[in-house]
Amino acid sequence: MTGKKSPWNDLGEFIRAQRELANLSLRQLAEMTKVSNPYLSQVERGLYKPSAEVLKSIAGALQISAETMYNQAGLLDDDAGTKGHDAGRVEQAIHGDSRLSKDQKDTLLRIYRGFIERP
Amino acid sequence: MTGKKSPWNDLGEFIRAQRELANLSLRQLAEMTKVSNPYLSQVERGLYKPSAEVLKSIAGALQISAETMYNQAGLLDDDAGTKGHDAGRVEQAIHGDSRLSKDQKDTLLRIYRGFIERP
DNA sequence: AGCATCTGCTTGGTATACTTAGCACGCATC
DNA sequence: GATGCGTGCTAAGTATACCAAGCAGATGCT
To answer: Under an 8 A CB cutoff, do B80 and A66 touch?
Structure first.
């Protein structure tokens, strides 16, 4: 394990850096996130890649947005929605519109997808 | 397990609905996502909650944004970054979608506005 | 009818995510 | 010195995510 770099090292280093910036010990973060402190230690050292739920919980405790954390973990491409790609844009906007009920969202999405598939 | 509802049923139903809308079989989706077809079947029936990587892959294959998929899975709060910016978002996205014809855009906008005015 | 192909699903197995119990060390106090 | 507390980490154990092998049914073709 001398110098061996796992795929999750960058993420772990990011989490440790943010934790230290927030002046929290592993045990304190563990209490806040309800994730065990040994596991957090292992995550920080790149031994495991945590689930999105754990990432979300850590992000909340460290007052980072979930989006930032997912970007760091490679779960979101922060350019994806803006790189001239239409795919997902309309869908995302519909989902994000709080004035629409779930049924209305479903209806709009179904119609939209129908249009996309047979132009 | 008769009628027993797992926490992931909504997500599974969402994925199945999108897959069927896209006219893909489980095996086709499995090939596209590199996820096994039995597992996808189990995910759709709410037996397991898939990781964010699997969700991202499914989203890509079904041409849904990762954000949309994560929202559906409860991994992102869709209001988190967009509260107060709902107005105009859907309309903008529809206008900007190059895959829609003018008629289709008009239709979608008409329906959308109808929903907004009388909820 | 038989055969091939496609479909969704069951079952047992493997790997990883995550926990619990506990160790070693550092520091402060008496 | 001894003791207590906080710190990060090890190692064994548990649960879940996900896979491979294969079954049963439906459909189409000869």
So the answer is: yes
The C-alpha atoms of residue B97 and residue A112 are separated, in whole angstroms, by 10
Q: What is the ipTM of this complex?
A: 0.70
Locate CATH 1.10.260.40 in chain A: 9-72
User: CA-to-CA distance for B89 and B50, rounded, in angstroms?
Assistant: 30
A88 touches strand C (CB under 7 A): no
Residues A9-72, CATH architecture = Orthogonal Bundle (1.10)
Reported as a single tens digit per residue, the pLDDT across A5-34 is: 677 889 999 999 999 999 999 999 999 999
Please report, for residues A103, B77, B109, the alpha-carbon distance to residue B58 in angstroms, rounded to integers and kept in the order given: 23, 19, 28
Burial of B37 (0-12, 13-18, 19+ CB in 10 A): middle
